[in-house]
């Protein structure tokens, strides 16, 4: 099992969990397992074709998977997958 | 058999390597790790010294040098007024175990005679010495660093949750010019976190309210008010001339517009954003790391990125993130430490934890890649994705917790 960190903006769609333990040998499999458990997350994370949405950044530990093997990036048990959303809040 | 002074000096000249002022000047470029130690008295130092030199008068040399130059293999050049005292100082350093020590022949007089550059110490008023005394005590700041801060210009985009603590601490630190871009007025709901404003200034312009607080704290800060909405039409003019921009805005439009202009102008942007109990922080420093578009190539749909007014925020979170931005800003201005360029820091107030993610430059970035720079230079900037252009099939609904 590896850990997925859910950003605050997505937590309501993920049972209000901050972290979720999921199965999967690649980042793609991990996200598939995640959206299987929390179907409301699917449209937030993935396109209809199953690709990552362009506005969602995913990190394996501290590395951006865009610079690894994207969704095919292998995931070991104990790895942490971080979903990173852009946040706008600052002034208001 | 006791030696005469002349004999001592002769022996010393044979034992200590001497270098000419021109060689020292070249070493400043070719061996920038070289430490120049001025061993003269305080009164001589105040008349002028070599750029970048450290002042360790001969009387305190042995006591202070270990702290100033811990690495005994580092190249050192000593100098004095005429090149005699520096010979004695060089010998002392060799005795202390420094292995690469030379004395500058002819001293400061010969340096000046060659027409080489020199500078005089910064002069502070007694009030400035007292106000900034805790900075002056830190070797990494000192008089030179404080003078840098006094000569610096920082632009704050927004005098809100992030900008409020940043403006106060930048003013306290003595940053000479603070520009503030904000078009809003102070609202009672701002005061839970925007500590630069006050209850009796509710209804006033935020820029004017911020100026009052800044100048009450430090009257010598020049506050420049830009009472306008930052957008593509004015961004170039607004950021021009500033050393660092501190981004404390609330919308993606502003963040992208600011990013593109700052990259083009070569100005670093210290970026932070907050959401409820969490914050993100990084430095977008042209050439040293990625830009905002490398990190977030396209903005999320508005439903996925609500601002504080919709989602709420624990007041202290923008306070913490704004001060971390201030820390990065001061480091950039002083040229000390490792900036967060290329690293994104995530802060979680509930866990009291920080997570660091590595950021990379996108080789295909439409704004900061080499191709984008070339295109800009040729007058045909590459197209960038429009903000709010993405439709979501199923709008994201914020949960009940804290949304109201």
Quaternary structure of the protein: heterodimer
Strand order of the largest sheet of chain A: 2-1-5-3-4
Question: Strand order within the widest sheet of chain B?
Answer: 8-7-6-9-10-11-12-13
Strand content of chain B: 15-25%
Number of helices of chain B: 17
The largest β sheet of chain A comes out as: 5 strands, mixed
Tell me the number of strands of chain B.
13
Spans of chain A of at least 5 consecutive residues whose pLDDT stays below 50 are none
Shape of chain B: elongated
Shape of chain A: globular
Percent helix among the residues of chain B? Answer: 25-40%
Q: H/E series of chain A, N to C?
A: EEHHEEE
Question: Could you characterize what this model shows?
Answer:
The complex is a heterodimer of chains A (92) and B (404). Chain A is an alpha+beta fold and 92 residues long. Chain A contains two helices and five strands; from the N terminus they run ββααβββ. Chain A has a five-stranded mixed sheet, covered by helices on one side. The longest helix of chain A has 11 residues, at 27-37. Chain B is of the alpha/beta class and 404 residues long. Helices cover 37% and strands 15% of the residues of chain B. Chain B has helices at residues 5-15, 21-30, 42-45, 61-68, 85-95, 107-113, 126-131, 133-136, 142-151, 163-173, 206-217, 235-239, 252-265, 292-295, 308-311, 316-334, 370-377, and strands at residues 17-19, 35-38, 54-55, 76-79, 101-104, 153-157, 177-181, 222-226, 244-247, 269-275, 278-284, 343-348, 353-358. Chain B has an eight-stranded mixed sheet with strand order 8-7-6-9-10-11-12-13, with helices on both faces. In chain B, strands 1-5-4-2-3 form a five-stranded parallel sheet. Chain B starts with a helix and ends in a 27-residue tail after the last helix. Chains A and B meet through strand 3, strand 4 and strand 5 of A and strand 10, helix 15 and strand 13 of B.
